[in-house]
Design brief:
Blueprint (H helix, E strand, L loop, with lengths): L1 E4 L12 E3 L2 H11 L2 E3 L2 H32 L4 E5 L6 E6 L1 H10 L9 E3 L4 E3 L1 E8 L5 E10 L1
Parallel strand pairs: 4-9
Antiparallel strand pairs: 1-2, 1-3, 5-7, 6-8, 8-9
Length: 148
């Protein structure tokens, strides 16, 4: 079954993409939830025109994301956490603390775009986080967790 997505869906596609999915997935989940519509020839033509119009706007957004990425590559974050005498953190460090540290540096990054490699951070040390600024632009930021 061929459908046209109305919004970005993780591991499937982006808004206005025409994708092929199994009939049950499209008919029973994507279309009733409003995530997609069934692709017809007229809808395909209309989405192609809309994509052409969006291309210019998308280029501007991508350029601004590239500028932010260049600035972020030079930053190294230090995050303080309460720890025991052995260096184990009470709780864990997550994307919320990374987003707060970035906002202190002057970057307004949504915590949902930040991912941390591996499992939850529960020990003092150096780690890396990935920030997805644009669908094609992902920046790796090193950060260090220290005891407060």
């Amino acid at each position: 079954m061929e459908i046209i997505l109305k919004q970005d869906i993780h591991n499937l596609g982006h808004k206005d993409d025409a994708v092929t999915v199994k009939a049950g997935y499209g008919r029973n989940y994507l279309i009733p939830k409003g995530f997609a519509v069934q692709a017809t020839s007229s809808l395909k033509k209309m989405t192609i025109e809309m994509k052409k119009q969006k291309a210019h706007k998308e280029a501007k957004i991508q350029m601004s994301a590239m500028e932010i990425a260049k600035q972020l590559e030079t930053i190294e974050l230090i995050i303080g956490a309460k720890t025991s005498s052995t260096g184990k953190i009470f709780g864990s460090v997550n994307t919320i603390q990374i987003a707060e540290a970035l906002s202190k540096k002057g970057f307004d990054i949504d915590r949902k775009t930040i991912t941390i490699d591996g499992e939850a951070i529960k020990v003092v040390g150096k780690y890396t986080a990935k920030i997805k600024l644009h669908r094609d632009i992902i920046v790796e930021i090193p950060f260090e967790v220290i005891a407060e």
